[in-house]
Write a structure and sequence with these properties.
The chain folds into three domains: 26-148, Sandwich (Immunoglobulin-like), CATH 2.60.40.2620; 151-276, Immunoglobulin-like (Sandwich), CATH 2.60.40.2630; 289-366. The chain is 5% helix and 48% strand. The chain has one helix at 2-19, and strands at residues 30-31, 33-38, 56-62, 73-80, 83-86, 91-92, 97-104, 116-119, 127-128, 133-136, 141-148, 151-159, 164-170, 176-181, 188-193, 196-203, 215-218, 222-223, 228-234, 237-243, 246-247, 252-261, 264-267, 273-276, 289-296, 300-302, 305-307, 312-316, 322-324, 330-332, 339-346, 350-352, 359-366. A hairpin with a 2-residue loop joins strand 22 and strand 23.
């Protein structure tokens, strides 16, 4: 009877130990939770500044600060009440310390944190955590500082003929369409390239936009010497623009300003405004637009003289050629014409027509 009692008491003691934790260190399993901060200060269409309830992201757990795929496990986490929790719960046992990495948005197929799939067609702001965050059983809460991996190409179209932007087509066999991202650095390696069309529904105005420009998330890459041809469809009509050789970096927004007038669509400058997505975006000062139309019948013409502060513009000579405005600008024709000269000007205050021969029509109604 005594032996039976002894074995019974031993079994109860073992059961009690298991119920209290049973793991090394004698502690209970602890659920790991995370908070996040997105490194964003700029205003840009579709660029995340905060997460919403129900958002999901990939969480990767590993034993060391450097990722080793043979000891890394992938998890799903959901956002609610300002906190991320695993679905199912991510836990640590007694005395355990682990390192965690994160990537947004969630992808069930993203098992490898060093090759996370990225697709331009998804048009999602891709975020990564960078260095691993250490979390222990005694302090089971980690904090990720999420950074942007994609670049943003944006277009500020100032239209003086109205219209609606319907699509932006990147017409290059070298334009990156898909790639894989390393979660530690955010670097994306392109795996597939080709043309891409982004649909839009934006009403055009003379002021353009100061925020929320029509924009496209792109995989960071370098445009070669051949440039990047882009077709803009506005009211069913296609306009062609070539962006010059340049490099697009992660977490940067590149804003190109274009001018749409009766003469067509023109790239205002080959140099875009570059905005760091972790910095404050400044609102540019509003500029005054003027349009001048002159019909001439002569084989050489001198441009009308314009005055004003910080005046600039374009001169369309009526023979399929164009020049940047300058006060002493002249142009020669192969015949006597007539030719319709159109000038798109900004910040102009006066215009003088002296010295122009063969003028048959002057239209200053938009000056």
């Amino acid at each position: 009877m005594k032996n039976c009692m002894k074995y019974t008491m031993g079994a109860l003691a073992l059961l009690a130990l298991t119920a209290c934790g049973g793991s090394e260190g004698g502690s209970k399993f602890s659920e790991v939770t995370f908070t996040t901060e997105i490194q964003t200060r700029a205003t840009a269409a579709n660029v995340l500044t905060d997460f919403a309830s129900g958002d999901r992201m990939n969480i990767y757990k590993t034993e060391k600060a450097q990722i080793s795929l043979d000891v890394t496990t992938a998890h799903q986490a959901s956002f609610s009440g300002g906190v991320w929790k695993g679905s199912p719960a991510i836990t640590l046992n007694g005395g355990e310390t682990a390192y965690f990495f994160a990537a947004y948005p969630y992808q069930a197929a993203a098992e490898n944190p060093l090759e996370i799939p990225v697709k331009v067609a998804d048009q999602k702001d891709v975020l990564y955590s960078g260095a691993g965050v250490s979390v222990s059983e005694s302090n089971p809460s980690g904090s990720f500082k999420m950074s942007h991996a994609m670049a943003v190409l944006a277009f500020n179209i100032q239209s003086y003929v109205g219209g609606k932007l319907q699509s932006i087509e990147f017409d290059s066999e070298h334009f990156p369409l898909e790639g894989t991202m390393r979660i530690t650095s955010g670097r994306i390696t392109a795996t597939t390239t080709g043309p891409y069309t982004h649909t839009c529904d934006a009403t055009l105005t003379p002021q353009g936009w100061t925020t929320n420009h029509p924009s496209v998330f792109v995989i960071p890459y370098t445009v070669g010497s051949a440039g990047l041809p882009i077709h803009f469809t506005i009211d069913g009509k296609s306009y062609d623009i070539d962006l010059p050789k340049t490099s697009y970096a992660m977490a940067k927004k590149y804003v190109y300003t274009l001018i749409l007038t009766d003469a067509g669509l023109t790239l205002k400058s080959e140099t875009p405004t570059v905005i760091d997505l972790s910095a404050v975006m400044e609102t540019p000062a509003e500029e005054r637009y003027s349009h001048v139309k002159v019909v001439v019948g002569y084989d050489m013409v001198q441009v009308p003289v314009v005055t004003g502060q910080n005046t600039y513009g374009f001169v369309y000579w009526g023979d399929d050629s164009r020049s940047d405005y300058a006060a002493d600008l002249t142009h020669s024709y192969s015949t006597m014409g007539p030719y319709t000269i159109m000038m798109d000007l900004w910040n102009a205050e006066t215009v003088t027509m002296t010295g122009i021969r063969g003028v048959s029509e002057i239209d200053l109604s938009k000056f």
